[in-house]
Write a structure and sequence with these properties.
By secondary structure, the chain is mainly alpha-helical. It is 66% helix and 0% strand. It is built from six helices and no strands. The protein starts with 12 loop residues before the first helix and ends in an 8-residue tail after the last helix. The structure holds magnesium ion. Magnesium ion binds next to α2 and α4.
């Protein structure tokens, strides 16, 4: 690959990122390791690394603590790791992650009308 992945293109961003992650994997012949189960385990590992950054930090102090640039950068790195594996999983499964997310948001808008849930946490039915 001869293009800088930090330079955006006109391609929709999630589609572009999915393609960049696919190309990164293919260039290293790592696609052979990217079965859904292995990708889910890798994803969970990265979620664990993200959660570890917040371990033992009181919930009401987390936002201010991560306003620190170094901590925010670390959180960003782990969030990016999570997204990379999530994009790769969706790609391997043939899931249109942007379309699926839009569909879920539309469903959430229907299920949680603002005038019915304003200021209250949703409950599991
Ligand atoms: Mg990580």
């Amino acid at each position: 690959m001869d293009r800088d992945p930090q330079t955006p293109t006109a391609e929709p961003e999630l589609a572009e990122l999915t393609r960049l992650v696919r190309e990164f994997s293919a260039e290293r012949d790592w696609e052979q390791f990217h079965d859904p189960k292995s990708l889910i385990l890798a994803l969970m590992g990265e979620v664990g690394e993200l959660a570890e950054l917040f371990q033992w930090i009181p919930a009401d102090g987390a936002v201010s603590r991560f306003a620190d640039p170094a901590r925010r950068q670390r959180a960003g790195e782990e969030i990016a790791d999570v997204l990379v594996y999530l994009l790769r999983l969706a790609d391997v499964l043939g899931v249109d992650i942007a379309g699926a997310t839009r569909a879920k948001l539309a469903d959430s808008h229907r299920r949680f009308a603002v005038d019915q849930v304003l200021g209250t946490a949703p409950e599991k039915a």
